[in-house]
Amino acid sequence: MILPALGAGASFVPASDPHIRYDGRFDFSQPAHPVAIWEASTIAVDFEGDRAAVRFGRVTGQVFFNAAVDGVGTVVALAEGAPAKAAALPVRGPGPHHLVLFKRTEASAGTAVFEGLEVAAGARVSTPALPSYRMRMEFFGDSITAGACDEDGPKDQWEDRSTHNAAQSYAALTAAAFSADYRNTSISGIGLAAGYDDVLMGQVWDRTYPEASSPRADLAAWVPDVALVLLGDNDDSYPRSKHLPFPADFDGKYASLIHAIRAAYPRARIVLLNGGMWAGTNSRELGAAWAKVVSRLESADPAISDYTFAHWTDNHPRIADHRALADELDAWLMRQPFMDAGRG
């Protein structure tokens, strides 16, 4: 839905304007109405003038963006069924200014159509300079990597996704430590052979949307130097909650996913991660199955490594826990020769 303009003192810049930069997996099947899907996806543009508002159309579920103008941040909240909105952002002075929208909530929580932005009448927009990235990293995972519940209090909660912030996940922190352009392809509840979601990771890791029927993403358009995979917690916790045995096909499903990632990214280093919550550190069944399949994968592919986190939590990791996880992973990665390109 297109909203009325802010008034006579505003100009509208459509989402299809070539000066707007998109990073992440978006649905561009309608270029004038791109859909923001995966967490950590960003929209960036430079603009002049003393006003700015971002406009959104159709929303599914709950979607929250971190919006920053010249580094001054605010949160834009969108919800399915609510009236379409143009969210005004704080702008100081005539500019030029730099705007970044960061999708803080995960793909399975909701998606939003970006319509464009409103700026002062006659104000120009320009393409922002590309950050000085040293490398590319892609993280594949579940709720841990997505940053689910990381701003919650003592208890995890899922009704209000405003406290789920991918910008504070260990993935975001690790990428920042290595000045890396990164993608976060993670879904809460998902597993490889069993999980709380209605799909498995092998069905959706390469899709535009987190749905098995979704078109495949163009993986050749953005290729990581390092792919990091943290999965398995839900393969243990879901059957355990149902008094079922650990899935016998975990080994095969895990190996199949890693082989698919290798086929898509033949030159990437793959890092297989374990831990972060109770099951990864304490489940004998998951630990034994993970160690077995990882050993076999590493024996066949010298560009695969593994790391197990020492830090873990019963609830989903909070911001301090993500910092601890990132510190661990950063220290290990700094010792790996394949990370030379990303050293600060």
What does the model show?
The protein has helices spanning 143-146, 170-177, 201-204, 233-241, 250-264, 278-282, 284-300, 319-334; strands at 10-14, 21-23, 26-27, 35-36, 42-47, 52-69, 72-79, 86-88, 97-103, 110-120, 125-126, 135-141, 180-186, 226-230, 269-277, 304-313. It has 344 residues and is α+β, with helices and mostly antiparallel strands. It has two domains: 10-126, Galactose-binding domain-like (Jelly Rolls), CATH 2.60.120; 135-342, Rossmann fold (3-Layer(aba) Sandwich), CATH 3.40.50.1110. It is globular, with a radius of gyration of 20 Å. The chain starts with 9 loop residues before the first strand and ends in a 10-residue tail after the last helix.
Q: Report the biggest beta sheet as strand number plus sense, adding barrel if it closes.
A: 11 strands, antiparallel
Helix content: 10-25%
Structural class, judged by helices and strands? Answer: alpha+beta
- CATH class (first level) name of the largest domain: Alpha Beta
Overall average pLDDT: 95
| Number of separate domains | 2
- If you compute it from the alpha carbons, what radius of gyration comes out, rounded to the nearest whole angstrom? 20 Å
- What's the CATH H-level superfamily name of the largest domain? SGNH hydrolase
Using DSSP, what is the number of strands? 16
Tell me the β content: 25-35%
According to CATH, the fold-level topology of the largest domain is: Rossmann fold
CATH architecture field of the largest domain: 3-Layer(aba) Sandwich
Distance between the termini: 44 Å
Number of helices: 8
Could you give the order of the helices and strands? EEEEEEEEEEEEHHEHEHHEHHEH
Shape: globular
Taking pLDDT < 50 over at least 5 consecutive residues as the criterion, the unreliable ranges are 1-5
